[in-house]
Each structure stands twice: as C-alpha cells, then as structure tokens.
Amino acid sequence: MSDVLERPAAAPLDDGQLKVVGTRPVRPDGAEKVTGKAMYGADLALPGQLVGKIKRSPHPHARIVSIDTRRARALPGVKAVVTAADFPDLASEEYEAGESASNLRDLSLNVMARDKALYDGHAVAAVAATSSAIADEALELITVEYEVLPHVTDVEASMASDAPVLHAHLFTQGLAEKPSAPSNIAKRNEIKRGDLEAGFAEADVVVEGRYTTAAVHQGYIEPHACVASFGADGQCQVWSSSQGQFMIRTYCAKILALESSDIRVTPAEIGGGFGGKTTVYLEPVALALSRQCGHPVKMVMTRDEVFRATGPTSGAVVEVKLGAKSDGTLIAADVVLKYQAGAFPGSPVGAGSMTALACYDIPNFSIVGYDVVTNTPKVAAYRAPGAPISAFGVESAVDDMALKLGMDPIALREKNAVRDGVKASYGPTYRNIGYVETLEAIKTHPHYAAPLGPNQGRGVAVGFWFNVGGESTAAVNLNEDGTAVVISGNPDIGGSRASMAMMAAEVLGLPVEKVRPIVADTASIGFSMLTGGSRTTFATGMAVTQAAQKVVEDLKRRAAMLMDVAVDEVEFVNGAAVCRDPAKASLTVAELAAKAAQTGGPIGAQVSLNAQGAGPGFGVHVCDVEVDPETGHVTVLRYTAAQDVGKAIHPSYVEGQVQGGVAQGVGWALNEEYIFDRSGRMENPGFLDYRVPVASDLPMIDAVLVEVANPRHPFGAKGVGEVPIVPPLAAVANAVRGAIGRRLTDLPLSPPKIRAAIDAG
Amino acid sequence: MSHVEFIAPTKPEQAAAALLAGGAHARPLSGGTDLLVQLRSGRLPPGLIVDLKRIPEAIGIRQEGGGFVIGAATPGAALSEHRALGLAWPGVVEAANLIGSTQVQGRASMAGNLCNASPAADSVPALVAARATCVIVGPGGRRTAPVGSIAIGPGRTSLAPGEFVLEIHLPPRPARSGDAYLRLIPRTEMDIAVVGAGVNLTLDGDGVVTEAHVALGAVAPTVLLVADAGAALIGTKADEAALAALDAAARAACNPISDKRGTIEYRTKIAGVLARRAATIAYGRAEKRA
Ligand SMILES: Cc1cc2nc3c(=O)[nH]c(=O)nc-3n(C[C@H](O)[C@H](O)[C@H](O)COP(=O)(O)OP(=O)(O)OC[C@H]3O[C@@H](n4cnc5c(N)ncnc54)[C@H](O)[C@@H]3O)c2cc1C
Hints:
The complex is a heterodimer of chains A (761) and B (290). Helix content of chain A is 28%, strand content 25%. Chain A is built from 21 helices and 31 strands. In chain A, strands 4-8-2-16-13-14-15 form a 7-stranded mixed β-sheet, with helices on both faces. Chain A has a 5-stranded mixed β-sheet with strand order 1-28-22-23-24, with helices on one face. In chain A, strands 10-20-19-18-11 form a 5-stranded mixed β-sheet, with helices on both faces. In chain A, strand 13 and strand 14 (236-240) form a beta hairpin. By secondary structure, chain B is α+β, with helices and mostly antiparallel strands. Chain B has 3 domains: 5-50, no CATH class; 58-170, 2-Layer Sandwich (Uridine Diphospho-n-acetylenolpyruvylglucosamine Reductase, domain 3); 177-288, 2-Layer Sandwich (Enolase-like, domain 1), CATH 3.30.390.50. In chain B, 34% of the residues lie in helices and 25% in strands. Chain B contains 11 helices and 14 strands. Chain B has a 5-stranded antiparallel β-sheet with strand order 4-5-10-6-7. A 4-stranded antiparallel β-sheet of chain B has the order 11-12-13-14, sandwiched between helices. Chain B has a 3-stranded parallel β-sheet with strand order 1-3-2, covered by helices on one side. Chain B is globular, with a radius of gyration of 19 Å. Bound molecules: flavin-adenine dinucleotide.
C-alpha cells in the first residue's frame, strides 16, 4: 500500500493522554553498544574472507597514463586486483538516492578513478589478498604512471579564469548564455525578491562582510567498512555501515550494472554518519573484487583514508551585505556564496542559498551561489548541508547590524522574524513554525541575563533547516504472546529505534519494553529512503504509527468477532479491546494475540508511504566564551540552544541531537580545518591535527526544547538532527567578537588568528 | 624483517645486548604509546621490541640521596600517585601528567617521552629545567648524562647502538624551591604542545630568586635551556620588570618553524607568555615550600 499524504493525517494525539511518547525509557540498542557486542561495519567475519585495500593517488591532479598490476597479481596470496577497467564506463546521469541527487558517472569515477586522479587520496586500484600484509605489499607492486597536472584546492582560486581546469566537459550551468569554455564553476544559482537597489537606497544603516570557512569533516568515529560477497549465481550480499542499506543497494547496482534483486544489503550498526555515510566508497569495490575471486572481501578504511578520500563539507567564501531602517527593519540583503564541491560538482550551495535568509522576512534580496570543483575530496552531505556556512556569514552580519543599530541581537531578530503565513525566502509559505517561540525561550532564559566577566563575550545566532519526509516502509508484527516487533529500513543513527518502538507502543497500548524495534536488510522490508534530512522520526515514524493503527483496527475486528458484537461496538483503550456493553469482558492485546489462529491467523501490518509535510525547524543559540588575550585561546564557558522540535518523542535523544550538533558546530568554529600543503596534499589526516572538540573542550550544553506541534505528524514531531549545527559557527564568532571587540571572519578561530587580531589592534 | 619480535628481559645488561644484536630495527619499549603507534602507522618498520617493564630498576619511584630516582618505564599514573614526588617536583609531575589522557597515562613514561625525541614532548622542558639526569645502560656499561643531552634533533637521540635509559634522577631539592610547566594547545587535552615552558627556581629567605632554570619546548629542534631567561629572574622577586625581561629572553631564544600547528611569530610570542606564567606559578610554589 502506498499513501501520499497531501493533507494532515489524523490530528496529533492529545498530549495529555500520551503514556509512552515524551518519556525517557532506556534505549533498546544501548546494552549492546556499551558492552561492545553491537556489530559495526568492521565486526563481521565470513569464512574464506579476504582483506581488500585501495591504492590511492598521491597527486591532487594527474592524468593516469598507465596502471601495471601484473606484479601485484603474481604475488602469492593476492586473489583479485581491480582498476577502473573492471567497472562499466557509465554515462552521465543524475540519480536521486542519497541525500541529494548524484551524477552516477561522477559517483563511479569517485569510487575508482579512470583517466584522471582528481585529489590526493583518489582511489586508482584495489587488491584483495589473504592477509593485510600481503595486500599492503600488493599495493606497492602496482605501478601507476602519472602525468602530474597543476592543481587547485582553494575555492576562489579555482574560479579564476587561469585556474587549471578539472573537467574539460564542465561548462557553467545557470548562466544567461551558454559559456564557450569549460570552467571549474559547475553551476550558478540565484534566488531573488523585490528590488535590491531600491532596498539599499531606503536603508539607513548598511553592514558588509566577507566570511570564509574551511573544509571540515563529519568526523564520525567509525571509519567506512564493509564485507561483500559475490555468489557464483550472481547473487550478492553486502554488509556495511551506512545511513541507508537501500542507497547502498541502488548505487552498487548502478555502478556495477547489476539488478537490485541480485543484491541484498544488510545494515551494520553505525558509528556515526552525520550525512557522510549517504554515499558509497568501498562497497562497489569490494563487490568487484569479490566477483573476480569468488571470496567474500572485507574492506575497512584507516582514519587517514577517511580524511583524504571521503566527503568533508565545503570550504567556502560568503559575502553578505545587509541594509536596515533605523528602527531595525531589515530592508535589503545581498548574499553571494562560493562553495567548494571537491573533485566533482555537487556542493551544498543550493541548500546554503535556500537557508541563508530563511529566518528573516526581508522584502528585497538576492542570493547567488556558485558550485565550484577543486582538487580536494568530493564533498558529502554534512548535517544540514550548506546551511551552517551561509548562516555563519548572515548571522555575523546581523550581529554587526545589531551593534550598529544599538539593538539587542534577539530584538533585532524578533523584529524581522518569519512567522506563520510569511512566504519563506526559498519559496513556500510557513505554517506551524515555532521560531518566535524559540527566540522567546532564549530571551527569557537565565543564561541570556547572566553577567559576564572580563575577556568574556556572549554571542547569539539563529538557524533554519527544512527537514524532509519522503518514502518509508515499516511493519508492525504482533507475537503470539502479545509482544510486538517493529521493522523499519532506516539505520539508527540518532536513537530512532527508541522512537519507533515508543510510537508503536503508544498506539498499541503496550509498555515500550514489549515492543522490539529492528532495522532490517533490503530483502526483509520494503524500500525506505536513507536516514538523512532529519526524516526518520517524521516519515518512518508516520509509517510505524499507521502500521500500528492498522494492527489496532484488526484487533478491534477480531475482538468483535470473539465477543460476537459489531465492530463499532468495540473500542481500543489502554492496550485492550473494550466493548460498549459492560457485560462483555475486555480482551487485552495478549489475549487477542493468543487467539490469533481462531480469528484469521497472524496479526501484523506493513505501511509504505511518501510522507509530506515535514515541519521546518528553527534554532536559537546563545554562547559565552572567554578569550585569553595573550594566547588567543577560546574557552566556551556556557552554551544554551533552544529549538522548535514539534514534539520530542524521546526528549533525551532529542537533547542529545541538539548537544551533538552544537559540539560539531563549535569544532567547526574553533579548530577544525582541512590543511593542504603546497603540493595539494592534506597535512592533517588524523585526529591529532584535525581537531574535533574533546569532552573537556565543551561545557554542558543546555538544550531547551520548544514544542510547537507539526499537525502533519501523528504525534506532532518535526525533524531535529540538523538544525542544531546551523547556528554555532556564528554564535561562537559573535561571542568572540564580544570578548575581544573585533570581528573575525575567517574560520576556524584558532588561537594564532585571534592573537594576531588582538595584536593588530 | 616483515614481522615483529618481542622480548621482555629482566636484567638491564640483557636488554642492552639484545638491542645491540637487533641492530637498526631493534627498539626499547616502555609504555609503547609512541612506539606502537609508529609501528602500526608504518612510520617505523617492524623489528625487535625489547620491553623494559620487567627490569626492576626500570619501574617505580625511589627516594635516594635526597633526590628521586624514577625507573625509565614508570607510567605517568604512578608519578601522579606519588605524594612526596608531587610535593617536591609539582612541575615535573604536572608536565608528565599532561601527556595524553587517563588511558595513555596508564602506560606513557617520561623516558619514552624523552627518547621519542619530539621537540614538543611535554615532560622534557620540565625535566631539563629541573636539571634532571639519566642513567644510561649500554653494551659498555653505565653512564650518566643530563636529560637535555639525549635528544639531538626531531626523532634523533645521542644514544649509541644498544644503549637505553634505565633511570631518571631528580636532584635533591633545597627548601623554598618550586617548579611549573605550562603548554599551549588549541584544545584542552589530547593534543601536541604548540609551545611548552618549564621553570624551576629557588628562593632565599627574603623571597629573592637565587637559582632559576627556564626550558622551552616546541620552539627549536630540541628543547632549549634558556640561560638568559633564568638569569632574568635571579636576584629578583619575579616582579613585573623581571618577568618582562624573562619574556624577552625567552622570545629571543626561540628558533621555531611555521607549520600546521603554529607560525614562527605565534610560537615566539607564546614562548614569552608561557615562560612568564610558569615563572609566576613556580615562584608561588617556592614561597609555600618552606
Ligand atoms: C593519544 C596520545 C596522546 C598523546 N599525548 C601526548 C602529549 O600530550 N604530550 C606528549 O608529550 N606526548 C604525547 N603522546 C606521545 C607519547 O604518549 C609520549 O611521548 C609518551 O611519553 C611516550 O612514552 P612511552 O613510555 O609510551 O614510550 P614508548 O612508546 O615506549 O617509546 C617511545 C620511543 O622511545 C624509545 N624508548 C622508550 N623507552 C626508552 C628507554 N628507556 N630508553 C631509550 N629509548 C626508549 C622507544 O624505542 C621509542 O622510540 C601521546 C600519545 C598518544 C597515543
């Protein structure tokens, strides 16, 4: 069955009656994880399994003249060697399967370089061998002849007319006239409203800034890992850690020209994704190796490989000009975004553009975005892709505007806030948003009024993310003892097993411990889009709720049969079928389950749907820092993040999402960055010099949940996982500005930069 | 050799002989927090590992002749638990305890930190400022050398083939002495010093500095003992003028590189800042240690 919900589903269940939703039970996947039993991507071992490893280009840009694999093949213990010649040469085709559309040809070329290596770390060949040491030796024995080409890693340098061109076939899209020469600018996009010039002419105060951010990695703790086994009959199995087993299946099928029914993908437990596991790197290679030798092949990346060859998000340049009336009304905004895409087109500049002004009701604006290829790893989705970058620029400029106007930064945002009925900068009209409520939550929070000491500063910033719905399948099956299983196709990256079980338990009237959630393989449940876009609790949760509701309808029907009354005589209350006629004894779920054979057989339901109406989310953050004026070291003293979450199904995991987003955003603001040396090689491909925050770098992050229900979700939920990474870059930068009295515009705000700014006076 | 061999002798002489026989790819192992990481990453080729932890003299903290003898392979956690050592040499202990995390502290030793010969090693500036010496065992017997003479460049030591450090000796401590170590890292832990500064000083009854040693890490190929910086404190009460002179002397001694962890300009400034701050802490500690 497939429902496209164009109108609200049943009104959200009344809050006062909820028994499970909104409580904080222990997570169903917790014990396995804390005792080390959970099976992550690298934990599976199959009989006869080989070790697969990848040979990577040491050059950021080079033509591959030849690859000689003969000596590697001859090494005892080597069972398979593949290069691009072992993959079909795909035609250029946009395909929707990950978090955004991917070009299949580019995807395939990223998995294995064909004619050109486009970044340091680009895969050029792979081997499978009986041991790790033999695989390493085999990689050494592969000779690749390169013609090294000039490279470019910086986004603006890559836009220059004299930059080395990465792709001879790439002509800028989105220009009025088709360009005559290829360029590294893959695309120009534009969103406009009103009359920009007239707007600035009316402005009493104008602020301007140019802001830059470095490429940063998602930094998931678990490196990419998979096992692939290609059967003699062409039936393949893949076990891998990703944000979507169906995404893995689709991409493997496309890249290897296989049929979906030939591939079964089992999701491993996932050790963090944050958007970075919404694409494939290893799986098609492992399958190609396994196809060649018939053995299962396991591949596990090192951290060095994760940094050099998997998606960071864009380094970028953001230019912002704002105009306001003296009463604080924002009247004009001009935003230019230049985002690094890495080796192939597809930076998140589109989403960066759409979100840039999404919190503001401004009559005249222009947002222009550039998607720019560079000799760096192809970017992958990273939590609210694109939004933190544009928000960093816009929120820094709004902060400067508040200063110039002498206005409180929250008052300025309130004055220009989007509300229900306002047409969003990116098109649709807002409904049921909780932005002003979220501003209010920070304005009235004790943190906002707390005194600051010397060298301390406070910064405020806001952020927006769309959140999405999309296609999901879920099944709810009752067991013979009246307990239940909830089956979904979405890897649990943020506590979704808990929320799925809770929503089902709520509808079935069961204690949550009696509902067991599992994440199934691609052959055991219908299609679901990957876990991304903050969609799972919303969309898959909707499928789970509807499946549970179907089970309840079925239970009522069966109870009526047993009670020998009409169905409409039976209600379902607190996990039991109750007849209006008090003379008839009620039947509990367990009693009905025990009698299933008598009433029509096993009890269960599956729902497939394409969920519409995900409510957009807004966050308002306030951050206090202290800057050591002599060393430039920043200490984050206090952080409060308020967010409209619709309805928190499991408040602890919602708070965890908020805290995690803030932690990553603080890292982005203060210390994380890809550093390339002059030859275009990454200098810091490890957690020692790529500095994600450690626990002692952060204060307890206070998450304030604002609940303005989303009427399109059965319990009122909105997506929550991405919004919290949007404001922190600017919240931290604005706080630093407060502490040192100077605006810094170049992330990360590492100690040397801050000390230099202080010295520059 | 394409594989690792491991031995754990109980006598220093056995270890020296094995190291000599093992040649270029033989290495002593204390905590292994550098060595094993380097082997796994491929930075070091596999070879013979000679574990020192079974040698009784190489483990533990002993009070001898008014000073302290610290077995080469003694982990940081043991240093932090030794009350007398912490009272006498708080700067040395705090420097060693900055290494890594709780888990790393269970293994990491000061001798390993020293012999890994990183210019940014945290315990070394504190040991150099403390005028610590080490007992070295080799095929030819035992010798004693100042801690500051071990590292001769990044990753290179003055140890001859077969030689290893058996003990680190901290000298007897006069009354009214104090030491301190500070480092700058972008984070709060699990990081490499951009600059480190160790200060060790002794006061007379009036609070005038009579002896002072200042050592800087990560601002030159090896840890620097900056005589001018120490001299700037002697005869003063570490007042503002003395601290300014110390700051200037520390900066003047720096010969750093610009790399991903910091620029020459930044490192130089911070060397002055940290030397000043460490001197203030050491002075405060010395005043309290009657
Ligand atoms: C997660 C992590 C964090 C770290 N953080 C820091 C930090 O904050 N600051 C810092 O300075 N370091 C840090 N380090 C590096 C390392 O922990 C220290 O240098 C530590 O002191 C090394 O001591 P060890 O006993 O483990 O040495 P080992 O690894 O055993 O040895 C290091 C080197 O010295 C040689 N060696 C060992 N013992 C002797 C001996 N007695 N005589 C001669 N040669 C010997 C070995 O052959 C090897 O070359 C960190 C390491 C890790 C893994």
